[in-house]
Specification:
Number of helices: 11
Shape: elongated
Distance between the termini: 72 Å
Radius of gyration: 26 Å
Number of strands: 2
Helix content: over 70%
Strand order of the largest sheet: 1-2
Strand content: under 5%
Length: 400
């Protein structure tokens, strides 16, 4: 298997970042580090201009708002990474070191039948690639739409008014040449930056979460298979190793929560707004297969982002609580009374849930289900109102 977090690191390197600990330049934010942030922020102007220009057309406004919110969420993710850049690299180095230590001392030597860390890294690598492909294909679908329409219109001999991949309005002619080509290239570059940071920041979160779960499972296995009837010095050394391991995992969990708090909060709030906008687009685009497919793909992409954070928070919470169960299933009663205090300390620490929290929102599958149930209710309401509107319009025509 390749280097852990290699895909996410490549995405960050493409944006001008590096984790070279010996370089003082990489520890200080420079223009190349914030250029991507300024570039994405600059895209808000043509997007908002488009929404203001078409303020009387609700379909165009909602189509623009969904992209505006996605762009805003990317701004939050880039800003979070820039603020906590050194913490991100520190966690990457720490997990790589733990992975290396785990591979040098296989789990079977610790009395375990499964190497949880190795399996977790395979899963994290697979999900990282799959998520990157999902984001890339969504962006590619947006880019190819106008090109396919131009090709189809030329083939059919019809007149086609050029459209940009994203709903944008620039202060110059963006339809004729060379303005259209410049705007198209600008949109492509913005999409590349958005996809790169989404793949890096979101991919790192789910990879960190999966690795933490694996280490919690490894700790549980070590506790259950510990021999507490050994001589006191050996038992004490083993217990100290378990307590230190548990403290390290709790520290990494708190650090993960700290650096991802702005991203998790922004993901929940902005996704909740996007849900209403995109569901409106889905309901009003039933007659157009291309638009329906576009919005459905976009909807799936944003829900996948929210699911990543909810699933990651859920597995960390669940496995951290299972450490308490592992202690109770072990032969703790064979340990000397003085050493049982260390086990009691592990129990007390593991009885408190390790939550990935951002304000009032807790990243968990329960909250994800709550969001999806809200979506279904909202969709049914939109459909009911749309049917009522069509009925009233038809009745008005009959009365005339």
């Amino acid at each position: 298997m390749g280097t852990l977090f290699q895909l996410q690191e490549n995405c960050l390197r493409a944006m001008g970042h590096s984790h070279n600990v010996d370089s003082a330049k990489d520890k200080v934010l420079s223009l190349k580090h914030i250029s991507s942030l300024l570039f994405v922020i600059s895209a808000q102007y043509p997007l908002i201009s488009y929404a203001v220009y078409n303020r009387n057309d609700m379909e165009k406004v909602t189509a623009c708002l969904s992209v505006v919110l996605t762009n805003l969420l990317t701004v939050v993710k880039i800003t979070t990474f820039l603020v906590y850049k050194q913490d991100f690299w520190a966690m990457i180095r720490r997990f790589r070191k733990m992975h290396q230590q785990s591979s040098q001392s296989p789990s079977k030597r610790n009395g375990l039948d499964v190497d949880y860390v190795a399996e977790a890294n395979k899963l994290a690598s697979f999900l990282g690639r799959a998520y990157c492909m999902s984001c890339g294909l969504t962006g590619l679908y947006f880019m190819l739409g106008p090109i396919l329409k131009i090709v189809a219109s030329n083939w059919q001999g019809t007149i086609y008014v050029r459209e940009l991949p994203m709903p944008m309005k620039f202060p110059f002619d963006g339809v004729g040449s060379p303005g259209y080509e410049v705007c198209f290239l600008y949109t492509v570059l913005v999409t590349v930056v958005v996809v790169s940071y989404a793949s890096a920041v979101d991919g790192l979160f789910i990879s960190f979460a999966i690795n933490l779960r694996a280490h919690f499972q490894t700790l549980q296995g070590q506790i259950e298979n510990s021999q507490f009837d050994l001589p006191e010095k050996e038992t004490q050394a083993g217990l100290k190793s378990l307590v230190d391991y548990h403290d390290l995992l709790l520290s990494l969990s708190r650090q993960l929560r700290s650096i991802y708090t702005p991203t998790v909060f922004g993901q929940f709030v902005i996704t909740s707004l996007q849900v209403g906008v995109i569901i409106y687009q889905l309901v009003t685009s039933m007659d157009s297969v291309m638009d329906l497919l576009l919005y459905a793909t976009f909807f799936g992409s944003i829900m996948l982002q929210l699911f990543i954070y909810c699933y990651g928070g859920e597995i960390i919470k669940a496995e951290s609580l299972q450490v308490d169960v592992a202690v109770r299933l072990s032969n703790w009663y064979l340990a000397p009374p003085k050493l049982r205090r260390s086990l009691a300390l592990i129990i007390l620490q593991s009885q408190r849930e390790v939550l990935i929290r951002a304000g009032f929102f807790v990243a968990s599958l329960a909250n994800f289900v709550g969001v999806t149930s809200f979506q279904s209710k909202l969709l049914s309401e939109y459909q009911s109102n749309l049917c009522l509107f069509d009925f009233c319009r038809s009745a008005g025509r009959l009365c005339r």
